[in-house]
Specification:
Peroxisomal Thiolase, Chain A, domain 1; 5-stranded mixed beta sheet; 4-stranded mixed beta sheet; 10 helices
Length: about 300
């Protein structure tokens, strides 16, 4: 299972043993749990009758991880669509800050590349016509789907220099079952409040899926929040595709690895930039925090602020 694989990597890197794992919290983000496994079984999927029921419910990844690693702290599964991974990271942060657990593991996984799920996206007009992801190009009208899993550990005090999660927040547009408002909805409120509570971002890693509504809504939201002194934009879906519920955490893990060295990832060369914004094509130094955004269908918006080491 992809979720178990990335959880094992994160736990190993953190150096957590049985004592640390016993009271650690676990938060998993996914749009559909194990739906891909029973809608389109593949070789290697657990064939045991004992697992037939558990493989069909969203909570199975969290149960599998907690059993595998002896995690007896609180565990939750979030299914907030394309925001699920970022929400998992945010809720893990809140659990540690709120004293619910001394440490937490955030995991996100989504495996949507099965015919039935792809057909649903295609019927909704959300899939790209080709495999070129250029999210803000005037002709962009769909996303390139991908599969992915990611995990990140959080502790109240770090034993060695790591990027720091400064802030998490989310809100809802309550507007449309598929898209977000063309003017950016309530995303500017997330951005402005984050600036009040933390620091102004030097860069943004937007959701930037490539759908027509996202291509319009993102720049509109940014312009409302940043009328001047605009941050650079760093688009990761042109590299990894849109991994749906895993995307927010997967992209946060990529950002955190660059920020560990005080850097920001480059953009794929040749991408179209919204008017007034820069998309650096080289790896650059990060002088301050990065804001990561995610948007789920139905108007769920989430934001994480990450500070370099």
């Amino acid at each position: 299972m992809a979720a178990l694989h990335v959880a094992r990597q994160a736990i190993s890197e953190a150096g957590w043993g049985p004592d640390e794992l016993k009271d650690a919290a676990l938060v998993v983000g996914t749009s559909r749990g194990n739906a891909a496994g029973w809608l389109g079984p593949w070789p290697g999927r657990r064939p045991f009758r004992l697992m037939a029921a558990s493989n069909t419910i969203h909570s199975e990844p969290a149960a599998a991880i907690s059993i595998e690693f002896g995690m007896c702290g609180p565990n939750q599964v979030l299914a907030s669509g394309c925001s699920a991974g970022l929400d998992a990271l945010g809720m893990a942060l809140l659990m540690v800050r709120g004293g619910i657990a001394p440490r937490a593991l955030a995991v996100a996984v989504d495996l949507p590349l099965v015919p039935l799920l792809l057909d649903n996206y295609a019927m909704s007009g959300l899939l790209a016509a080709n495999f070129e992801c250029n999210p803000y190009h005037p002709l962009s009208a769909g996303f390139v789907p991908g599969e992915g899993a990611a995990a990140m550990t959080l502790e109240g005090t770090g034993a060695w220099p790591q990027p720091q999660l400064l802030h998490y927040a989310c809100n809802a547009d309550a507007c449309d079952p598929v898209g977000i408002p063309a003017d950016g909805g309530r995303t500017p409120e997330l951005l402005c409040r984050a600036m009040l509570l933390t620091q102004r971002p030097s860069a943004l890693c937007p959701h930037a899926t490539g759908t027509a509504v996202q291509a319009t809504a993102d720049p509109a939201a940014f312009n409302r929040a940043f009328p001047s002194e605009r941050p650079t934009l760093h688009l990761l879906k042109p590299f990894v595709g849109h991994t749906i519920g895993a995307s927010g955490l997967l992209e946060s893990v990529i950002l955190a690895r660059f920020l560990r060295d005080g850097k920001l990832p480059c953009n794929l060369p040749g991408l179209h930039a919204p008017l007034g914004y820069m998309l650096p094509e080289e790896i650059v130094t990060s002088p301050g925090p990065v804001y990561k955004l995610a948007h789920g269908m139905g108007g769920h918006n989430a934001l994480i602020a990450i500070k370099p080491s």
